[in-house]
Amino acid sequence: MSITLNALTKSIWVFHAACSPCNNCDIEILDALTPRFDLERFGIVLVGSIRHADAMLVTGVPNMKTAPRIKYIYDQMPKPGVVIAVGTCPCGGNMFRHSYNFVKPLDEIIPVNAYVPGCPPKPEALIMGVVKLIKALKGEK
Amino acid sequence: MNQMIDFLIFPGLLFTAVCGMLASFVDRKVTARVQWRKGPPLFQPVYDFVKLMGKEMVVPSGAHLLTFLAAPLFGLSAIVSVSIIVWNALSGGSAGFSGDLIVVVYLLAIPSIAVIMGGFASNNPIASLGASREMKLMLAYELPFILAVMVTVIKTGSINMTHVVRAQAGAGASAVAGSPSGIIALAVAVFCIQAKLGLVPFDIPEAEQEIIAGPLIEYSGPALGVIKLTRWMMLFVVPSFAVAVFFPSSTFAGNILRYVLLLVVAILLRNTNPRVRIDQAIKFFWFYTGPVSLLAVGLALAGK
């Protein structure tokens, strides 16, 4: 466990990558960042540029139009970085699984480190997912 | 050898970096308390900096490599030089050299110029937009800032930082901010500091909700870390320059206390105001703050 990776777990700057969502998950993400839940306690800050980000929060279904773009954005993220799939859609396609323009689940396009299922997931679920991810990065169970 | 200690440890790089990180922590903590939440831990700026140092650095394909990567270092070295001159005077060090007040005023403009250079070199339309806003803002606040500093030069009759501090903090001497013209100049300087630091009423170049991160949008990894470090150091150095010019104390601890007072004023201004547009900012500095600072210079010349 290197010093920089240890520092990464204490200062995760998240980038919100909307991959054609229905906006419910986005609203829950914004809710999690409000003063009520205070994610800055864990050093989590929302940044606007993918170049500053350590984590991508991907919401929505990867379809024909957004799948190449989400891969392009992932390639631009400075490594080491993590990807968190927020909501049931990026985790597995939800009810759009049999849709004509559905490509494949997110983890077959880019590597995904954490899954937060729910339609939409509550802010508590999102925080729990991030805390579990931090523990996994540190090598704890 | 002594000079190396001055440059690297006190009052140079290390001292400024530690104080700047503390100031950034105070800023984030007070902001959190104003919003009724708990806020980040004490070592948060250290974690941020170490993390950024360990990240990959991406340089956009159209960027000018040398300018893009050298700009953050220019800003950092300029702010370290300012800290050496200002804190040498504030901690009662050597006599400095004649005219170092003017050198400090010039050096304080370099971090903004570095951000402009980096923004234009990064070949990104949003970065160019942010850099052009930064340039307009600089044109707006530099004139009132220099006029406010002029008041002290007239009052103390010196352009040497150490003399300026001693003329105000010695036995029986009174601070410039104790006179009518000094109070007006200090009020003008507080607004100019807000713009120089890019804090909220004047954070137009970086406006997160409109142009994401402005000139910094393409920076990543160590380059972004150096820019963040420069920002934190500015949060420490620029208000302490105002302390040295307007109301220094004869002791080191007194100067730190006065600096904290100015920092809290800046943080509260930042938390209680919405962002203005660039045209409103230029109007504010040229048509309201500018004439007021001219008035202060006039009063100082009249001996008030």
Structure, explained:
The complex is a heterodimer of chains A (141) and B (304). With 141 residues, chain A is of the alpha/beta class. Chain A is 35% helix and 15% strand. Chain A is built from five helices and five strands; from the N terminus they run αβαββαβαβα. In chain A, strands 2-1-3-4-5 form a five-stranded parallel beta sheet, sandwiched between helices. In chain A, helix 2 links the parallel strand 1 and strand 2. The longest helix of chain A has 16 residues. Chain A is globular and about 45 Å long. Chain B has one domain.
Salient structural properties:
heterodimer, A: 141 residues, alpha/beta, Rossmann fold, globular, B: 304 residues, mainly alpha, 13 helices, 72% helix
Reconstruct the topology from this structure.
The complex is a heterodimer of chains A (141) and B (304).
Chain A: H1 3-10, E1 13-18, H2 24-32, E2 45-46, E3 55-59, H3 66-76, E4 82-86, H4 88-92, E5 114-116, H5 123-138
Parallel strand pairs in A: 1-2, 1-3, 3-4, 4-5
Chain B: H1 2-8, H2 13-34, H3 44-53, H4 65-90, H5 100-107, H6 110-121, H7 125-156, H8 161-169, H9 180-197, H10 208-211, H11 221-246, H12 252-271, H13 278-301
Distance between the termini of chain A: 15 Å
Rg result of chain B: 19 Å
- Written as H for each helix and E for each strand, in order along the chain, the element string of chain A is HEHEEHEHEH
Q: In percent, how much strand structure appears in the residues of chain B?
A: under 5%
Query: Overall 3D geometry of chain A?
Result: globular
Low-confidence stretches of chain A: none
| H-E order of chain B | HHHHHHHHHHHHH
Helix content of chain A: 25-40%
| Assembly type | heterodimer
CATH topology of chain A: Rossmann fold
- Overall pLDDT level of chain A: 85
* Biggest sheet architecture of chain A: 5 strands, parallel
